[in-house]
Amino acid sequence: MPTPSETGREVRLAALPDGLPRPEHFTVAETPVPVAGPGQVLLRNRFFQVFPSLRTLIEGGVPGAPMPALRPGDTLFGAAIGEVLSAPDGSGLRPGDLVQHWQGWREYAAVDADACTALDDSLPDPVAHLGQGHTAYTALTHVAATRPGDTVLVTGAAGAVGSLAGQIARLLGAARVIGTTGSPAKAGRLTAELGYDAALVRGDGPIAAKLAEAAPDGIDVLVDNVGGEQLQAAVAAARPGARFALVGTLATQLAPDGTGTTAPVELDVFQLILKQITLRGVVGTPASRKEWTERFGGWLREGRITFPHVRVAGIDQAPRALHELIGGRHLGAVVVEV
Which of 25, 145, 33 has its CA nearest to residue 82? Predict the structure, then answer.
């Protein structure tokens, strides 16, 4: 097995931004390779995920959220795939194994063995483990209980969750799948490649009017990654008994003039009551992960689903990748190949 060099690189927050973070707010620092302590695995990271919630963590986080705030000097973190270099006895891991863990944004990591998930060949490409299809699947099955014949709306449909949610909804038997996105180019890909019947472009007129036209009979299921005006429009378009799965708050999280730590929105409670709409958040859902991985792997091998993602080469390009993700440049998940 290859042995680590004496030093590795990691991405640190250099300064707090005034507004949205930009590449100059980060630094790629050289640091000694960590020494694995008792019960720890030494890993060389191969891939890690870039995700928009980092903006919220940089701004101080949200009370009660499972991820800690980031301060200047801190190393960023996130879902990663690492190659085992050494592992403690009894861990079941061997050098060369691939594991998933949460110490991304660095070349080397020492991670508690019980915080590593060994990867098998259940997915044809190990990078697919860094997708957010599990969140979309949980929202559509365990939270919103999508049924054959439903009309499904996915806001933020070109993101890591939304680019899989449309495909999953179609496989679950949805009769009509509608998405929202930020550009005509992405809208075209949603309908041509990713299972959507219609894609509504944000900023091109009131979203409520567009949704009323795309779903004249209303919607049964919402997977909401955005909040704000789009959540309001979904309430107006909901059929009686509609089920809403609340995943994200991109409308405020990525607002240049906000902090990304609050997501206020005014909803018509009369409509929630009269239509008997249910709203549930989707947070930390490990129970269905095995079920999702098995179905995802089968669908991928059968060619019934794709994993939309962009690979950015080199840890030194990670700050730029985050900037581009926040700016809406990419479709699907964004992964850095270390």
Answer: 33
Task: Give CA separation, 16 vs 19, 26, 59, 73, in Å.
Answer: 9, 9, 8, 10
pTM of the model: 0.95
133-281: CATH architecture: 3-Layer(aba) Sandwich (3.40)
H/E segment holding residue 112: strand 108-112
Q: How far apart are CA 34 and CA 216, in angstroms?
A: 58
- Token readout for 104 is 């991304």
HEC per residue, 23-43: HHHEEEEEEECCCCCCCEEEE
Give residue limits of the domains in the chain: 7-130+307-337, 133-281
Q: Give the whole-angstrom CA distance, residue 234 versus residue 242.
A: 10
Distance CA 135, CA 289 (A): 9
| Architecture (CATH level 2) of domain 7-130+307-337 | Alpha-Beta Complex (3.90)
**Per residue in 117-127, pLDDT tens?**
999 999 999 99
Cα 254 from Cα 19, distance rounded (Å): 9
Tell whether the model's pLDDT for residue 286 goes beyond 70: no
